[in-house]
Amino acid sequence: MSTALATSTREIRLASRPVGRPASDNFELAESPLPALEDGQILVRNLFMSVDPYMRGRMNDVKSYSAPFAVGKALDGGAVGEVVASRSSAHQEGDVVLHSLGWREYAVVDGAAATPARTDLAPASAFLGALGMTGLTAYSGLLKVAEFKPGDAVFVSGAAGAVGSLVGQIAKAMGASRVIGSAGSPAKVARLLELGFDAAFDYHDGPVLDQLQKAAGPAGIDVYFDNVGGEHLEAALAVLNVGGRVAMCGAIGSTTPPNRLRRPTT
Ligand SMILES: NC(=O)c1ccc[n+]([C@@H]2O[C@H](COP(=O)([O-])OP(=O)(O)OC[C@H]3O[C@@H](n4cnc5c(N)ncnc54)[C@H](OP(=O)(O)O)[C@@H]3O)[C@@H](O)[C@H]2O)c1
Hints:
By secondary structure, the protein is α/β, with parallel strands linked by helices. It has two domains: 8-121, Quinone Oxidoreductase, Chain A, domain 1 (Alpha-Beta Complex), CATH 3.90.180.10; 133-260, Rossmann fold. Helices cover 22% and strands 27% of the residues. It has six helices and twelve strands. It has helices spanning 54-58, 133-145, 162-173, 186-194, 208-216, 230-239; strands at 8-14, 27-33, 41-49, 79-86, 96-99, 106-110, 115-116, 153-156, 178-183, 199-202, 221-226, 240-248. α4 (186-194) links the parallel β9 (178-183) and β10 (199-202). The N and C termini lie far apart (55 Å).
């Protein structure tokens, strides 16, 4: 029995550029016709999409390492989906692929821009996480940029986030002497300890420097994996041993309104 192919897709568009924290009225759900497949293209039914910090920057109309989203147009970003029709010799119907047209149910994708997702090895969603961009960021940042080596003591900020949680786990698996993480709530601190971090603290509980010194002890740290910048970076530099290395992955704390740093009282 053949199933009729989708001829249109629902998609999320940028309705207006947010100022500060994005709100739901900055986005709109719309229906859009799907173009007929050309040679080399595939039709993908998206299963999972990724929402990443860099997307907030793309909502601003400023020059950056990736182009801004256009107002009135669908957003895009990493997604994993099933090929439901193919005019590409590289992909068959039923294959699961990783591509960059998220924020919609169906996408017409150039076959050359889609990567097979080996769902016999891992769940499809893992190709947006540990086996995708966040995993590559964590792995290459730790091993290539920070030149991690077994025996290093590692401090990770934003440690409960997508990248940070992987950095800590990779460091532990590869022989770190100690892995310390900072995060923004008691529940996240508990989760880091469950993941195998040796120590973790909530940066709302006091100056980062004091908490980091206590967590690191006299051995200090050899590697700092920075997702946050600001006070975290200053504290890490103060505790870093001679010959220490820093991977500057992100500075999410520098673009966040100051009131984000206060824990809600209710
Ligand atoms: N995802 C990628 O592949 C990728 C690639 C290149 C660079 N990066 C960069 O890596 C960093 C982390 O990305 P991610 O994908 O792991 O993001 P994520 O999963 O969204 O985690 C980010 C975490 O940062 C913490 N945070 C937010 N504001 C903060 C502040 N003012 N001070 C301290 N912590 C704050 C929050 O955790 P708490 O609640 O614990 O504060 C948040 O959950 C970002 O700077 C991003 O730009 C990511």
